[in-house]
Amino acid sequence: MIRLTKKVFFDLAIWMIGLGLAMGVVFPFFMVLMGVPAQMVLTPWFFAACMGAGFVVGTANIGLARGVVGKRLRLLAERMRVVEGNLNHMAAGDGMEDCSPEDCYIAVDSSDEIGESAQAFNNLVGALAEAHQSEGAVSEFSRLLASQMELEALTEQALRQLMGHTRASAGALLVETEGELKMAASHGLRGPADLGQSDHVRAAMRTGQLQRVLLPPELTVEGVLADFKPREVLVEPVMYKSVPIGVIVLATGEAFDEKGLHRLELLRPGLALALNNGLAHERLQRLAALDPLTGIYNRRFGLARLQEEFGRAVRDSSPLGVVMFDLDHFKSVNDTYGHLVGDRVLVHMAKLARSVMREGDVLVRYGGEEFLAILPAASREDCRAVGERLRRLVQESAVRDGEQEIRITVSAGVAATPELTVDSPNDLVSQADQALYEAKDMGRNQVRIA
Question: Annotated catalytic, 369?
């Protein structure tokens, strides 16, 4: 329609009143065609009455349009001003607290263009709210992960956040360390340790692509993945600079919605950066804890572990033993063959000691050629047996230097609680050290018990 002014309702009034007046002019001729005598209707007074009626009808129509359409448009404008205010608050770093559905949404109570406009406005408000929530979620997720450097705490916190944002009922987070996928955190999964061998997990790591596993609702599997009957499982690789460093596994009793999948994609880059930092921190921690020559724990870290194990033994009233041992006549090895060969002997010694210890035992290079084995839940007799196995193994082995075989022996001292009454881990080590010196004084190549 041709625009006459810059005001739509004023244009509408002009057109409606004009149409009413035109109908008033045409109506008398229509009456003549209908058989009414011309002398009755083609009169100035009848023309004036018809045009007056057309004017009244046009005016009434514009009033109705303003009341029906204008009211909805004013409501739409009012809501738009509220959204504008919220957008300004968002730009200033505030939220959209004033734009709840009750405050901003418009009721869609018609199926015409007005209803379509209201629905489009509501969709716009919903998209803005979702964008703001997603931005806030990413910001909060990144902030929480940035506050954690320890890998265990970081992955536990990340998994809780991911499950909350995707409404998953169970999940796990695996990270790649030393060429293997290892479980870092899990919740609600049965047998999570086996996830690293899953074909879907391996495919995600190999391709770097999301794996979606939809399970038929009627399917029942013995030993199902989770403690509930999953409907869908997501296996999402975590990529850092195009290199997979971990895998997210999420399971739900219902299919994941697009909102959850979108939120997961937004959170994944922050998780990748945090995981990479956590793995780097763990590597640095491990390097700081290890003796660079033998690859076993150094004295500082070893004594810290002993403190932990001693505290656990006291709390649980469980045994704790230590074996202090060192190489006999090691100085003569260095003097005769040189320090490089001496280093090889120490490395050989550490490998033999690890071979006789259990998983969970702690081996420490205490100083020079002296080593300390920390044996949680081991009695004095258990510790003596470990020391004796090590002594025999060292005596029967040799380190080759060219054509020469360098044979060594070891002396050991054993101390254990509760057989010994000690007040601190230092007392326990002191008792084992004293037993070691007794073994040295009595001829070496033997194990003595404190």
Answer: yes
